[in-house]
Write a structure and sequence with these properties.
Elements (H helix, E strand, L loop, with lengths): L1 H11 L6 E4 L11 H27 L12 E9 L14 H12 L1 E4 L4 E5 L3 E5 L5 H4 L8 E5 L5 H4 L17 E3 L2 E3 L5 E3 L27
Parallel strand pairs: 1-2
Antiparallel strand pairs: 2-3, 2-7, 4-5, 5-6, 8-9
Helix pairs in contact: 1-2
Length: 220
């Protein structure tokens, strides 16, 4: 939320700020399980809240005709896609986990899990830490966390004038691993799934999750 508010302050000052956030395609675990779906649900709600606040700031600044919330904020994930193989996929039993494995072997596309906690600002300043955004890390009386910062003014974004590039083509070998997170955002900041892709391919589970009856303490 602090990032969205910082973006809004820049919009109101008619200054530009781009924020790129890399997250796992889904949290650790089975994407269709109740716990993971609950986390994905609140993740989607957070994304929507951030984009809607930015959309409101754009409208208030009179920039709605020329600017879009994704001009300022974008979410990415990491994955790997390989070209088709002539080898037959391994035989698996009929459990849902093994069916997902068989589909992954067939289509040769995989999620790369992101566990790093870091921030890079203008290719000049990097902040790396161990804390997660959960109760264990942020309570102050449980896990011990550490962070470090480094400054390299010689290597700056202003000298390169480039932005992150992503790719996601089915059944083709990728030359990189950065992919835009599978959501779409309208000009008002409303977040929805991509048309025809409500669930993750191969492994199922809704991209924007679903609310469950699990206690909040189990997903924080």
């Amino acid at each position: 939320m602090e990032l969205a508010l910082k973006i809004c302050s820049k919009i109101s000052a008619y200054e530009h700020l781009c924020v790129y956030i890399v997250i796992p395609m889904w949290p650790e675990g089975v994407p269709s399980s109740a716990g993971v779906q609950e986390i994905l649900f609140w993740q989607g709600q957070t994304m929507s809240m951030m984009y809607q606040i930015i959309g409101q700031a754009i409208n208030k600044a009179g920039l709605a005709d020329t600017h879009h919330p994704q001009d300022y904020l974008n979410f990415y994930c990491l994955g790997k896609s390989e070209s088709s193989s002539t080898e037959s996929p391994l035989q698996t039993c009929n459990s849902s986990e093994n069916r997902a494995l068989g589909l992954a072997q067939k289509h040769r596309r995989f999620m790369i899990y992101v566990h790093a906690k870091g921030m890079i600002v203008d290719d000049e300043y990097v902040l790396m830490g161990s804390a997660n955004i959960n109760q264990r890390s942020l309570d102050g009386s449980r896990d011990t966390e550490i962070a470090m910062g480094a400054y390299q003014p010689t290597y700056t974004w202003s000298g390169k004038k480039t932005h992150p590039r992503s790719q996601a083509e089915e059944h083709k070998e990728m030359t990189g691993h950065l992919m835009q997170y599978p959501i779409q955002v309208n000009k008002d900041g409303k977040v929805t799934t991509l048309p025809g892709h409500e669930c993750f391919p191969d492994v199922s589970g809704k991209v924007l999750g679903s609310s469950t009856n699990l206690p909040d303490a189990l997903t924080t």
